[in-house]
Amino acid sequence: MSDAQYTGPLNFAVFALPRAARLAEIATEIRELARGGRAEILDVELVSRAAAGHAQLESLPDDLAPAETDLLRPDDLTTIAADLGDDEMALVVVYEDRTLATVAGSVSAVAGRELWSGGIDAADLDTDNADVEVADPDAKN
Questions:
Q1: Global pTM?
Q2: Exposure string (b/e) for 41-78, b if CB count within 10 Å is 16 or more?
Q3: Half-sphere exposure of 7 (CA within 13 A, CB side)
Q4: Model pLDDT for residues 61-73, shown as the tens digit of each residue
């Protein structure tokens, strides 16, 4: 959970799964992320596409149900359902990334502060680095 020293980036991930997929191992991994302090789970939803093409929420397994907080808006659900195949469902996890919380505590201990936090879409990364200038550490000014 966010604290005075650190609020991690808020993120989400949407995973397409076969409709018949067993979720026990996935639920265990989600719980371990939270238990280990690496993520604060804010919402977990299971979404499918109804015969008419509309989004519908499915029941979560009992061990994930407490994480269901209904943060997703109807248009979020519609967008997710539109990307699903007929035999698929989507597992949606909304979370606060806490992996740097201990670093933030150390920064705070030396009177530092969090300046920026956020995410980068992997698709936005420039893989050829054509526009990147790298400073020459041996250059004289």
A1: 0.78
A2: bbebbbbbbeeeeebeeeebeeebeebeeeebeeebbe
A3: 5
A4: 888 877 778 888 9
